[in-house]
Amino acid sequence: MSAALFYVDALPGAGELAVVDGDEGFHASNVRRIRVGEHIDLSDGAGVLAHCVVEETAKGRLSARVTERLTVPAPRPTVTVVQALPKSERSELAVELATEAGADGFLAWQATRCVARWDGPKVDKGLRRWEAVARSAARQSRRAYVPGVEGVVSTTTLTQRVAAAVAGGAVVLALHESATEPLADLPLAQADSLMLIVGPEGGIADEEIVALTAAGAKAVRLGPTVLRTSTAAAVALGAIGALTARWAI
User: Fold this and answer.
1) Rounded distance, CA 211 to CA 218, Å?
2) How far, in Å, CA of 126 to CA of 170, rounded?
3) From CA 148, how far away is CA 135, in angstroms rounded?
4) Quick one: pLDDT at residue 73?
5) In Å, how far are 40, 68, 101 from 32, measured between CA atoms?
6) Domains with residue ranges and CATH for the chain
7) The model's pTM
8) pLDDT by 10-residue block (mean), the chain, 249 residues
9) Full DSSP string of 35-103
10) Distance CA 139, CA 8 (A)
């Protein structure tokens, strides 16, 4: 079984002592009940990873000696998930599943057919919650990278972001049940970065898919079944992992 992973702001060098406190320390000592002598991994969430041995534990914190420090290469292509705002608990589920499947970043999208509406204080609250869920899911799946979270963007702003991404060499995929081109048929192996657009429960509106494809996005069909907005990104990330070198070991 792989070692438990926890996040710290900065990692010391090999042979030095790292302290895990705050929320991560509470999770390590009070929830996971990590004990002296156990092997754990620590990461800064930006690709630096340290293998450690726990030397001391206390309520809400622990200290561990770094035995090896390394930098984990970022996966290629990188994948940013543009997630239309799902309603209620499905919002957090979408971020959790996509993070576990390898999403490198999230952009929250207020699509036309979104039932959920983030405005005013709901924006900061929603983004903070997505950040917390992404961090927790990244820890659970032993990731050295914690996905970033941005938003909320309108369709107009998203269209501009798509055009800029395509101009920079990215491949932008918009999942759409009426698309005729299967995701599996796309030549993604040589792509350096991808943007994956997932619509809301009611699907991407016709005028939105027209605007997005005009900006350079490719409308693609994931498979023969219609998935919920909360699961579509995770399934697509699995397909992308198999179609590219992201999951190469």
Assistant:
1) 11
2) 27
3) 9
4) 94
5) 11, 22, 23
6) 4-71 (2.40.240.20), 78-243 (3.40.1280.10)
7) 0.93
8) 89 94 89 92 96 92 95 95 91 97 98 93 95 96 97 96 97 95 92 96 95 98 91 97 88
9) -TT-EEEEE-SBSEEEEEEEEEEETTEEEEEEEEEEEPPPPSSEEEEEEE---THHHHHHHHHHHHTT-
10) 11
Of the candidates 117, 127, 140, the one whose C-alpha atom is nearest the C-alpha of residue 92 is 127
DSSP lists the bridge partners of residue 144 as none
Cα dihedral angle (33, 36, 38, 39), rounded to 10 degrees? 110
Distance CA 49, CA 2 (A): 14
- What SS3 class is residue 163? helix
The predicted-structure confidence for 3-60, as pLDDT tens digits, reads as follows 999 999 989 999 999 999 998 999 898 888 999 999 999 999 999 999 999 999 988 8
